[in-house]
Design goal:
The chain is an all-alpha fold and 343 residues long. It has helices at residues 2-23, 29-44, 50-58, 78-111, 130-159, 161-199, 206-213, 231-256, 264-292, 299-305, 310-316, 318-325, and strands spanning 124-126, 307-309. It is built from twelve helices and two strands. It binds protoporphyrin IX containing FE. Protoporphyrin IX containing FE (HEM) binds at residues 127, 136, 139-140, 143-144, 198, 201-202, 229, 233, 237, 240-241, 245, 285, 288-289, 292-293, 299-300, 302-303.
């Protein structure tokens, strides 16, 4: 019975199709040929509309009375590829982030904080100027806000929604989306300032190779002399701040302002690149935050107050310490004001 109905339905559809085709003749030879093939297909295989879907997937332009970029592409085929790529990429990114947090926890439990061997002298050296610190913390607050809201937008639906329910998650997602959209342009302004300000101290030189070969003594505990920024910090600067940071800014602007007439495919590519760069940046910034707080006592004070104890300078950045002592870097050689000296 059902089979009979299906056959009858298909025949009815085919004849309606033929009647419609007869009433609206194709405008050019290619379309006329396509229409002919589709009519033949409807008769020989009534339920198989493959030619129509092949045409749709081809992304061929159609007629539309609405004028504008891509308004004549009814179904954009690359969108399917983008949809298929997004979820696996995000899933890999999620596992990478969790693996990084576990690795940092493991490192902390195994190695503990990297403490000073010698006693602090009480004599302080200026490490970062006020301008450097203000720029650092502005970038840090913006970057972390974007990182956290980005994580909520990417993984919230699968990780948070089952835990906190629709009402709460809906609020959280709206806040995250708006913060992400509006804080992004702030990073576009402050990140280039940070790049210019910290670029000189992060240029590579021959001494960095020694540091790299020994892994900075991170695993062995060996003392390895370093410049003001060690090779690890320099790699992080060029990869996280410059390459990933600028990539996120450019792709973020493409996604934030769709009114600049970019195509759908440009936005899909920007979205995938933004996702990959975002996850890598969050992974790297986690390692940076770990070392800047619990991982290395004294580092956080350097960025908060601008001063470090001479022993800290000697043990972590010996080449820089020697240069300051020799007067080769005058700006960094001030005696600390009383308020910045340890009790
Ligand atoms: C809560 C987040 C953050 C904390 C706690 C933190 C902490 C620190 C600390 C303690 C230092 C001084 C290290 C030293 O004296 O050698 C430092 C330096 C630095 N941080 Fe951060 N930071 C954070 C976020 C960021 C972010 C998001 C970026 C950039 C995207 C960044 C880029 C830098 C740079 C460029 C330096 C200078 C070191 C160099 O010249 O390579 N930080 N940070």
């Amino acid at each position: 019975m059902r089979r009979m109905f299906t056959r009858a339905g298909a025949a009815l559809l085919a004849s309606a199709w033929l009647a419609a085709a007869a009433q609206s003749p194709a405008v050019d030879a290619t379309n006329a040929e396509m229409a002919k093939q589709q009519q033949a297909q409807q008769l020989s295989q009534p339920l198989n509309n493959q030619p129509v879907w092949s045409e749709v997937r081809s992304g061929a332009k159609q007629y539309t009375s609405i004028k504008g970029r891509e308004t004549d592409v009814l179904i954009q085929p690359e969108g399917q590829t983008w949809r298929a790529a997004r979820v696996p990429l995000a899933t890999i990114g999620g596992f990478l982030f969790v693996a990084t947090l576990l690795a940092l926890l493991g490192f902390y439990l195994w190695r503990g904080p990297i403490r000073l061997r010698g006693k602090p002298t009480g004599r302080m050296i200026e490490r970062f100027t006020l301008v450097e610190r203000v720029v650092h913390w502005t970038v840090a607050i913006t970057f972390v806000t974007l990182g956290v809201t980005g994580l909520v937008l990417t993984f919230g639906k699968s990780v948070l929604l089952p835990l906190i329910g629709y009402t709460l998650f809906s609020w959280l997602a709206i806040i995250a989306k708006n913060l992400h959209n509006f804080v992004g342009p702030v990073l576009v302004v402050v990140l280039p300032i940070m790049i210019v300000l910290f670029m000189r101290a992060n240029l590579f030189n021959a001494r960095d190779w020694e540091w790299l070969k020994k892994g900075g003594g991170m695993l062995t505990g060996e003392h390895v002399p370093a410049n003001k920024a060690n090779a690890g910090q320099k790699i992080l600067f060029w990869s996280m701040v410059v390459v990933l940071g600028l990539t996120l800014c450019v792709t973020g602007l493409i996604l934030d302002f769709p009114n600049f007439d970019q195509t759908r495919q440009t936005m899909q590519i920007a979205n995938v690149v933004h996702l990959i760069a975002g996850v890598l940046a969050v992974v790297m910034v986690s390692a940076h935050i770990y070392l800047g707080t619990v991982g290395m006592p004294g580092a956080y004070e350097a960025m908060r107050d601008g001063y470090v104890d001479e022993t800290w300078a000697k043990e972590h950045h010996e080449y820089w310490y020697n240069e300051v002592k020799a007067g080769a870097i005058p700006a960094a050689g001030h005696e600390a004001p009383m308020s910045h000296r340890p009790a």
